[in-house]
Amino acid sequence: MVRFGGLRRRFSAVLLWAAGWGLGGFLPRTSAEQAGAQEILLLHPAPYEEIDWRSGSLRSFGEAAEPAPRGWNLARQEAEDSMMALLALVRIDAGETLGQRLRGDSALEALLREKISQVAHSRRASRSDGQLTVRLELKFLTLLSPLVAPKFGNGKPLAPLLCPLCGNPWPRSRPYPPGPQPFPNQEHLPTGVMLHVGDLRFEPALFPRLLNLNGSEVYGPAFAERERALTQGLVRYVEAGDPSATERVGEHPLHLRPLGVRGACDFVVSDEDVQHLHGDARMFHLLQECRVVVTTAPFPVSESAP
Fold first, then answer.
1. Exposed, middle or buried, 98 (CB in 10 Å: 0-12/13-18/19+)?
2. Which of 117, 193, 214, 241, CA to CA, is 20 to 30 A from 269?
3. In degrees to the nearest 10, what's the CA dihedral of 151, 204, 51, 57?
């Protein structure tokens, strides 16, 4: 079990925060929260502690009043304990958080503590009041994903292939044309998928999924290349106006708007969207390459799915 002992009293706020968000259901959003969706992707469970889904980073803090070198060791240990508490809040998928996984896996906890000690970036500082502080930063996405990854592959298309020119069903007896093809009446070939979640309340996760109305997986581990998903993430989370989204989905992504959220982190899409994603071989290939971005930006009025 993750040990929270030895943390400062202020870090008990993490447990209260988890009860309302990270390890439990949802709390109602206030009007201030609705004004901006940043709190979804950049979370502050306690002062000086951050879970940043935009960069895939965790930041923790430790302090000690004793002189060096013992003070540095105590501050470092507190920062590492805080980092473990933050890791426990990371959601793996709709079924569990890392904290829930750790309850029955002491070996995984020991491995994570070892990784924190080895790879977390550390910064030291001395305050004027004599306190020694240590700040840690850890790239959790690439660290955690291989350790808790689900099975990949074996996803079956949920829609028939369509002709890239006329949009009619492609005859099964004929080979599909190789290479990228635009959608009917579309000027540009889609270069990725941009999912506009707007003000939907959801929890970011390592392995979220797109689902159809029946709950079948449209995108997720079943349709992604394992190595790409583990090194760059199954999806990339960005805030509204973040220009870095184009690094993942290119200049001409297919814009989609989910119908809702299921299981905290999975997004439900329409049957029409399923056809767009699975009915074209090129789009299917983009899903395999994990060219998917989840943005808190509202669906662009001037853009529409083809």
1. buried
2. 241
3. 50
CA neighbor of 199 nearest in space, from 299, 101, 109, 115? 299
Q: Is the pLDDT of residue 41 over 90?
A: yes
Rounded CA gap, 171 and 201, in Å? 41
What sign results for the dihedral spanned by CA atoms 261, 265, 266, 272? positive
pLDDT higher than threshold 70 for residue 132: yes
Q: How many CB atoms lie within 10 A of CB 123?
A: 11
State pTM to two decimals.
Answer: 0.82
Sorted by where each begins, the domain ranges of the chain are: 9-148, 150-306
Say which residues have a Cβ less than 8 Å from residue 139's Cβ, sequence separation at least 6: 55, 56, 57, 119
